[in-house]
Write a structure and sequence with these properties.
Blueprint lengths: L6 H16 L5 H26 L30 H18 L10 H9 L28 H20 L20 H15 L7 H8 L9 H18 L9 E5 L4 E5 L7 E3 L2 E3 L4 E4 L5 H9 L4 E7 L2 E5 L13 H7 L11 E9 L5 E2 L3 E5 L2
Parallel strand pairs: 5-10
Antiparallel strand pairs: 1-2, 3-4, 6-7, 6-8, 8-9, 8-10
Helix pairs in contact: 1-5, 2-3, 3-4, 3-6, 6-7
């Protein structure tokens, strides 16, 4: 990035420096302050500036009304802790901010009264519109400017600022990016997304939507309750009843192929899983081998060797923990498998996890490949 003189790199670095310098959060109240001021900036101050620059009776250079269709004249919002949608949005935004900084979320955030008191304590500075503010009205314009020598100079300055910020951070400081997941109702992602959309809709007097409707829009979900989805769910449930009832042979189950457009329905008995045999053992794709005691890599290889299997490759996720072709991998023999997974595969193992799964490629004594089940390594 040192040599990248482009506007996008400059904008990215400016956001990083801003996050680590001006807007760094040390505790949850800092996160709440940040969220409250962001609300004021996005939905109050920017709208006030827009109205100041382009009043309701503003006209274009041709004399036509500026606020003509499809433009809507906006209205700045007024924060009130008695409005649950505003309070939920600010609290959810603060929680996500805290998550990125690794700051614990206090229990009182679940109490609307205590959360409202905390938000009300935030000091919001008065806003004064700028007379020289430039607002882009060209719909075809982009936010990125053409790269220039000035961009390269600014980028170098920003990198120097980052270096200074790094020296002021503790050695264990880490920021965690939040990956958007719309289907988890406990992670506050859709609370923030729906809140952002509804606040902006409120600015322009557009009807608001609930979180479920916002989830449909964000995920581009096409409702198919009465068609193929309902049919597939029903067929799966029929097979699930057989599993729960127990005692059924494989011939009692059914695989179904259906095409509603034709229409065509075809049912067949499922094929039993392939049975792999080795010595006095037999297994299928549904089996799993378990190894407890937080073993080292050497102990795992020995455990497999006792079964008459020579492991030449062990992987976790997309990362290779061991391969017999690489001489340097022999240095890992006395390391715990869980430590290799953390250091090499960067596996996140929260406190409630007790095991991790590895894929092992093996050969028998005759150098024939043997497909073995997943191996679950228990480290707690």
């Amino acid at each position: 990035m040192m040599s990248a003189g482009d506007a996008q790199a400059r904008e990215t670095l400016e956001r990083i420096v801003e996050c680590l310098e001006k807007e760094k959060c040390e505790n949850f109240q800092d996160c709440l302050n940040w969220a409250r001021l962001r609300f004021e900036d996005y939905f109050v101050n920017r709208v006030k500036q827009l109205i100041y620059t382009f009043p309701e009776d503003a006209a274009t250079s041709t004399g036509a009304p500026f606020w003509s269709a499809p433009k809507r004249f906006p209205r700045p919002l007024q924060y009130s802790s008695s409005d649950p949608s505003l309070l939920n949005f600010i609290t959810a935004t603060a929680i996500l901010r805290a998550e990125t900084f690794g700051i614990p979320v206090p229990e009182w955030t679940k109490n609307p009264k205590e959360a409202a008191e905390a938000v009300d304590s935030v000091i919001v500075p008065d806003f004064e519109p700028r007379k020289d503010a430039k607002i882009v009205t060209d719909e075809k314009a982009t936010s990125l400017t053409t790269a220039s020598v000035d961009d390269a100079t600014v980028i170098n300055d920003l990198i120097a600022k980052l270096e200074r910020c790094r020296h002021n951070l503790s050695p264990d400081f880490r920021m965690k990016p939040v990956q958007f997941e719309k289907d988890d109702d406990t992670n506050y992602h859709m609370d923030v997304i729906s809140g952002l959309a509804n606040m902006r809709a409120r600015n322009y007097s557009i009807p608001e939507v609930d979180k479920l409707k916002a989830k449909f829009i964000a995920g581009r979900i096409i409702p198919a309750i009465a068609t193929s989805t309902a049919m597939a769910t029903g067929l799966v449930c029929l097979e699930l009843y057989k599993v729960l009832d127990g005692g059924h042979k494989v011939e009692a189950y059914r695989n179904t192929f259906a095409n509603l457009a034709l229409p065509l329905f075809s049912m067949a008995e499922p094929v039993p899983p392939k049975v792999v045999k080795h010595r006095d053992m037999a297994w299928t794709v549904w089996d799993r081998w378990v190894l407890k005691g937080n073993p080292t890599l050497r102990e795992v290889l020995q455990w497999l060797e006792d079964k008459g299997l020579n492991a030449y490759s062990i992987s976790c996720g997309s990362c290779l923990l061991f391969n017999s072709m690489f001489p340097r991998h022999k240095e890992r023999m006395d390391k715990k498998v869980v430590d290799l997974a953390r250091d090499i595969a960067k596996v996140d193992l929260p406190p409630y996890r007790h095991h991790l799964d590895v894929v092992v490629a093996c050969e028998d004594q005759d150098d024939n490949d043997v497909d073995i089940p997943l191996v679950s390594i228990y480290f707690r």
